[in-house]
Design goal:
Layout lengths: L1 H32 L13 H16 L2 H4 L9 E2 L4 E2 L12 E2 L2 E2 L34 H9 L9 H10 L1 H4 L15 H13 L6
Antiparallel strand pairs: 1-2, 3-4
The structure holds heme C (2 copies).
One heme C (HEC) binds next to helix 3.
């Protein structure tokens, strides 16, 4: 008798811990995969604080490996979620498309080619050195993308348009193979950036 109740207790407690682990894994997984909707920041009354909170949320995308791999600190793109140096060795070249004999388009074609794990897009090339994000804080990235001298001479309207509409940026949500997509959707990211600009575009 004592044995049966002991067994029942043991089974019940192990089921309980399994479900705890499952719930925990699910919630942390979701935090990485999702973006908070813009409306969830409406309750922050202080304009500056709201702006910074919106940009910090958008930072989950900006600092994601899918974006940073193309905005490296030096002349060489990085790869994978670990942001390792690109193999084989390729460099930016004069216009971001590589150097003769080793252009990006040699391997990167119009679309993702999952059989060989090669990502693709018709305009696949590296961001200019002035747009390097790797190793920078979110505050530094924020100041930099607002600065027309470093952001490709974009005003706020073109900057918002670039982030919410550009299909090279959009690749990050459909990266092919087993790559982790950027969190949320490009539309949600665009809304966060829009609301950040509307609230004064303050930087963290
Ligand atoms: C010799 C072939 C080759 C050339 C040339 C090449 N790449 Fe790649 N690239 C690859 C392959 C293969 C991968 C996928 C690696 C993986 O994920 O395992 C890759 C991955 C990448 C990634 C990482 C995507 C991600 O988020 O994981 C970036 C960024 C990238 N390449 C940029 C470039 C740029 C920019 C150029 C030109 C300057 C270039 N590549 C030239 C073969 C090449
Ligand atoms: C395949 C490479 C590649 C990927 C992936 C990529 N970018 Fe870029 N990015 C570029 C290039 C190239 C430019 C320069 C384009 C120009 O000025 O015409 C650029 C410019 C930008 C700019 C302009 C301002 C500045 O200072 O950087 C923003 C903003 C930007 N990218 C955001 C993103 C975001 C957000 C992601 C991920 C969701 C992303 N990019 C992913 C290549 C890439």
């Amino acid at each position: 008798m004592w044995f049966r109740s002991w067994l029942a207790l043991a089974v019940a407690s192990s089921l309980f811990s399994i479900s705890l682990v499952a719930t925990f894994a699910q919630s942390t997984g979701q935090d990485h995969a999702q973006l908070r909707p813009t409306s969830s920041f409406d309750s922050i009354r202080d304009r500056r604080a709201r702006s910074i909170a919106l940009f910090t949320e958008a930072g989950k995308v900006l600092q994601h490996p899918r974006c940073v791999n193309c905005h490296p600190a030096n002349d060489r793109p990085t790869q994978t979620d670990l942001m390792r140096s690109h193999q084989p060795l390729v460099v930016r070249g004069p216009d971001g498309h590589g150097v003769p004999g080793m252009t990006c388009a040699t391997c990167h074609h119009e679309n993702n080619f999952d059989a060989a794990r090669v990502p693709g897009h018709p305009a696949w090339h590296l961001a200019p050195a002035s747009m390097a994000w790797h190793g920078k804080s979110l505050g530094e990235i924020c100041e930099q993308i607002k600065d027309p001298k470093r952001n490709g001479n974009r005003d706020m309207t073109t900057l918002i348009h670039h982030m919410s509409e550009d299909s090279l940026v959009g690749w990050a949500w459909a990266p092919g193979s087993d790559r982790t997509p950027a969190p949320g959707t490009q539309a949600m990211f665009g809304e966060l950036i829009n609301a950040w600009a509307a609230s004064g575009a303050f930087c963290p």
